[in-house]
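G.,

No rush on this.
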Amino acid sequence: MTQYPLWQQLNTLKQATWVDLTHTFDPEIPRFSEFEKGEVSTLFTVKDHGFYVQRWNIGNAIWYSH
C-alpha cells in the first residue's frame, strides 16, 4: 500500500494509550456553588408529537471539567 502521511499518523495514534474522560450528565454534577445547576427538559415526546426532543442546558460547560 502506498505510504501516505495520514497512515503514518494513524499508526502513531494506535500505539498510544487512550483514556476516556467522559462522564454522564445530570443536574447534580459537582460545580462551583455560585453557578446554576444544569437542566434537562423534555420538549417533545413520541407519544404526543411523533418524535423525541430534549433540551440540555449545561450552563457554563467549564464548570463540568476536571
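When you get to it, here's the other one too:
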Amino acid sequence: MARITVEDCLSRTGNENRFALIHLAIERVKQHRKGQPFLVECKNKEIVATLREIASGDVSFDNILEYRKKDKAVVAEKKETIERTETDD
C-alpha cells in the first residue's frame, strides 16, 4: 500500500498549516472513537486511516462539522431509545 504523507494531506486540504491539519485529524479520530465509521478501507491504525481519509478528500475542514452534527444526532437518538425503554418498564 502506498505511503501517506503529511504533504499529501496538506495539498488536498489546500491549507499549508500543519497545525490546522493536526486539529482536523484529531477531531476525526475523536469521531471514530465515538463510533463514526471510517470512509476508506485499510488495515492501518486509526490515525493513519484518518490521514488517508483526509488525503482522499473525504474529510476536510468544510465537512468535519457535518460529521460532528451526525454524531450528535446519533447520540441523541440513542438517548431517546434508552429513555423509551426505561419508561416502558
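The mean pLDDT is 83. The chain has one domain: 6-88.

Enjoy the weekend,
O.
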